[in-house]
Amino acid sequence: MTPVSNIIQKRYSCRSYADKPIPGSVLRQFSDAVNTPRQGPFGHTPRFVLISMASLSREDWKKLGTYGVIKNARLFLAGILQPTLPMAAQNYGYCKEQLILKATELDLGTCWLGGTFSIGAFGRAAGLRPGEVLPSISPIGYAADKRSLIERVMRRIAGSDFRKPWSELFFNDTFSSPLSRNEAGPYAEALENVRLAPSASNKQPWRIVYQEDRKTFSFYLSRTPGYWYPQEVSLQDIDMGIAMCHFELTAQQLGLKGFWCREDSAPQIKSLEYVVSWQVGD
C-alpha cells in the first residue's frame, strides 16, 4: 500500500488532460471506490456519480461546460449532498477527498471545481434528485505533458503552489502561541498533510489548536469575508472536511489512535468558527 503522505504530496490540481483513455482495469478500480458507500465522520453518506463521455450523447456532452478552465477531460466525478443534514458540507469534503486520493494513487489527475462549471447541466447528467445539491465536480484523467495557458494563469492567480507556514495554521494551547513540529510530536506528519490539502481559491481556511492537557486537536474555520459561493453550500466548509480527511488518514496509517467529537467546552475564539476536535486515544 502506498503511504498516504506520498499520495498527498503527489496530488495537485490538474486542469489540462491528455487525450488518452483510462485502461479498463484502472477505471474499474476507481469505479468500485466511487460506487462503495462511504459514511463520513458526521454520520451520513454523500452520493457520488461518474459522468463519462461514453454514457452521454454528443449533444448532451457539449452542454457540460467548465468555462474553459478544464481542457480535454472526458470523465468527471460528481459529488452530491443534502444540505439540510447537519455538517453536510464537512462530511462531503471528507468523503470526496478520499476518492480524490484514490484517483491520485492510481496515477490519475484530478481537480476540485466548485464554481467554474455548468451546475444545471452536470446536475442533470448526475441525476440530481429533489433536495440534493451538487457543490463540486472533479475531472478525472491523465495529466497532459504541458499545462495550458489558462491553467498556468489560474495557478498564478490562486497561488496554487503556495502554502501558508505552520506558524499561521497550527497553534499550541492558544492562538498566540504557534505550534512547532517538535511540539506536535507524532502528529507532525498529519498536520503537514493538512497544510498540503487543497482548498477553494487556495484560501487554506483551517486553523488547529493543540491542547496537550486535554489531548485534543481542535479544528477551526477562518472564514474569508465576502467569499462568493455559487450555491447554498459553503466551499470553505467543504475545505474543512478535506482537512479532516488528510489528518485522519495520516493518523490511521501511523497507528495513532483517536476519534472525532464536537466539544461543548472547546475554546470560543473571536473571528473563528469551531468545527470539530480530534480526541487522542481509544
Q: Could you explain the architecture of this structure?
A:
This protein has a 5-stranded mixed sheet. Helix 1 packs across helix 4 (about 90-105), helix 4 crosses helix 10 and helix 9 (about 190-195) packs antiparallel against helix 10 (about 235-255). The model has no long low-confidence stretch (mean pLDDT about 90). The protein is globular, with a radius of gyration of 19 Å. The chain has helices spanning about 5-10, 25-35, 60-65, 90-105, 120-125, 150-160, 165-170, 180-185, 190-195, 235-255, and strands at about 45-50, 75-80, 110, 135-140, 170, 205-210, 215-220, 260, 275-280. The protein has 2 domains: about 5-150, 3-Layer(aba) Sandwich (NADH Oxidase), CATH 3.40.109; about 165-280, NADH Oxidase. The two termini are about 25 Å apart. The chain is α+β, with helices and mostly antiparallel strands and about 280 residues long. The chain contains 10 helices and 9 strands.
